């Protein structure tokens, strides 16, 4: 994760009042920007979600919901 905002995108979001109060409190305690705390929190959460998605895909593969194909077949389908 970048430490600067050179690739930043400004967003407007709505969050629960209690979450906003907690964010304000944490930002003051850590002397950090709320946007930086949100960015770190989302990065952490996305890492967690990546793991959940990987687990789901593995479960789907093991249960037969999803099938694999050979590299040769993948290349053929992609026209490579």
What does this structure look like?
65% of the residues lie in helices and 0% in strands. With 80 residues, the chain is an all-alpha fold. The chain has one domain. It is elongated and about 55 Å long. The chain starts with 16 loop residues before the first helix and ends with a helix. The mean pLDDT is 93.
Strand content: under 5%
**Number of DSSP strand runs:** 0
Structural class: mainly alpha
Rg (CA only): 20 Å
Mean pLDDT: 93
Helicity, as a percent range: 55-70%
Shape designation? elongated
State the end-to-end CA separation. Answer: 34 Å
Which stretches are poorly predicted, pLDDT < 50 over at least 5 residues? none
- Describe the largest sheet: none
SSE pattern: HHH
Task: Provide the domain count.
Answer: 1
Put simply, the count of helices is 3
Give a short synopsis of this structure.
With 80 residues, this protein is mainly alpha-helical. The protein is 65% helix and 0% strand.
Task: Chart the SSEs and their pairings.
Elements: H1 17-30, H2 34-63, H3 71-78
Features:
80 residues; mainly alpha; 3 helices; elongated
């Amino acid at each position: 994760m970048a430490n600067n905002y050179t690739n930043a995108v400004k967003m407007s979001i709505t969050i629960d009042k209690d979450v906003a109060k907690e964010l304000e409190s944490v930002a003051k305690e850590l002397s950090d920007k709320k946007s930086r705390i949100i960015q770190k929190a989302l990065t952490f959460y996305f890492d967690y979600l990546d793991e959940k998605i990987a687990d789901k895909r593995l479960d789907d593969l093991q249960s037969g919901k999803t099938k694999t194909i050979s590299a040769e077949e993948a290349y053929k389908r992609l026209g490579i």
